[in-house]
């Protein structure tokens, strides 16, 4: 089979993708060559494709996580050998290809209990969950959290991980079918429907107090609803804009004493030490079953269809690209 690489010609719709045969140079000093068995997709990829998060130059190769097997090692690489099962996530992007040369320090070894597909669907999301649940806000026994899109790729991991920390989880989903999935992941309470009274339901579930922390990847007008669902001196966290750009937030919405955080897993992972800390935490979580369900698989050459499926919001779980 011919190796392939997906180029993004310029920011825009899926017509900007260009599929070409790939010819990969040998890995350089400190690099390893990975043959991808599965490539994870994230809404981050959509933001890169559309130019919401601009890339330095074009044509570009996007994609922030993948898993596979080491095919070759470059000079000065001692931690890996051909045949090792590995995964990676975070910057620099460039995973939409059959094989990739990447710095060995950006790669983590997979345990025997974690196969390539769940690793590719869960590593970046698991790292994000670790950042959100332990670094941005220390969720623990007795915490009450609000998780939007609780049946989605990141949402399903957040629900499972929060429950492992003995938190109470309130999830939002768009359909009864997704509510059933989120319930199976451990969510204690579900709010169903895009037009639901989020604040009202949260107050009902928390005896009028509100949640300790709300994780909002929806964007649009949802962030204000999330902030209003947070208890006094609690925290709202904005992590995406699947429903559209976030409008300006009046500072008065943060009374009394609420805080608003806008973290970036890619910025967190720019530091190698923090990256490896989060990656190993995510892999340990995977070993306990905290993974993102796989909502669909597409051939790498069908990347346009995969992006269109992601943007519809119909799929529960993560979408994989298979080289």
Give a quick precis of the structure.
This protein is α/β, with parallel strands linked by helices. The chain is built from nine helices and 15 strands. It has helices spanning 43-50, 116-136, 153-164, 176-185, 198-205, 222-228, 265-269, 272-287, 303-312, and strands spanning 4-8, 17-21, 31-40, 65-73, 85-89, 99-103, 107-109, 144-147, 168-173, 189-192, 211-216, 230-238, 259-261, 294-299, 318-322.
Question: What this model shows, in words?
Answer:
- There is one protein chain.
- The chain has 323 residues and is α/β, with parallel strands linked by helices.
- It is 30% helix and 26% strand.
- It contains 9 helices and 15 strands.
- The strands form 3 sheets. Strands 3, 4, 5, 6, 7, 14 and 15 form a 7-stranded mixed sheet that branches.
- α2 (116-136) packs across α3 and α2 crosses α8.
- The protein is globular.
- The model has no long low-confidence stretch (mean pLDDT 95).
């Amino acid at each position: 089979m011919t190796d392939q690489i997906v180029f993004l010609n310029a920011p825009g719709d899926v017509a900007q993708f260009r599929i070409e045969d790939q010819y990969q140079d040998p890995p350089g000093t400190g690099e390893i060559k990975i043959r991808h068995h599965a490539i994870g997709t994230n809404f981050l990829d959509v933001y890169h494709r559309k130019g919401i998060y601009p890339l330095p130059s074009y044509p570009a190769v996007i994609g922030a996580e993948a898993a596979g097997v080491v095919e070759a090692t470059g000079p000065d690489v001692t931690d890996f050998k051909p045949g090792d099962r590995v995964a990676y996530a975070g910057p620099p992007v460039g995973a939409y290809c059959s094989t990739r040369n990447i710095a060995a320090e950006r790669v983590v070894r997979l345990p025997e209990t974690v196969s390539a597909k769940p690793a590719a669907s869960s590593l970046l999301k698991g790292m994000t969950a670790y950042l959100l649940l332990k670094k941005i806000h220390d969720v623990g026994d007795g915490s009450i959290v609000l998780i939007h899109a609780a049946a989605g790729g990141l949402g399903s991991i957040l629900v499972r991980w929060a429950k492992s920390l003995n938190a109470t989880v309130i999830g939002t989903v768009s359909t009864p079918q997704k509510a059933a999935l989120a319930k199976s992941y451990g969510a204690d309470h579900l709010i169903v429907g895009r037009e639901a009274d989020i604040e009202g339901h949260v107050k009902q579930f928390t005896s009028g107090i509100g949640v300790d922390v709300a994780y909002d990847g929806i964007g649009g007008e949802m962030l204000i609803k999330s902030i209003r669902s947070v208890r006094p001196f609690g925290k709202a966290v904005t992590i995406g804009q699947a429903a559209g750009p976030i409008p300006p937030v009046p500072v008065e919405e943060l009374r009394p004493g609420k805080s608003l955080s806008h973290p970036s897993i890619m910025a967190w992972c720019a530091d190698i030490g923090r990256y490896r800390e989060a990656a190993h935490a995510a892999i340990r979580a995977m070993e306990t079953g905290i993974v993102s369900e796989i909502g669909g698989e597409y051939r790498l050459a069908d990347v346009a269809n995969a992006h269109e499926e992601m943007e519809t919001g119909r799929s529960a779980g993560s979408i994989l690209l298979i080289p």
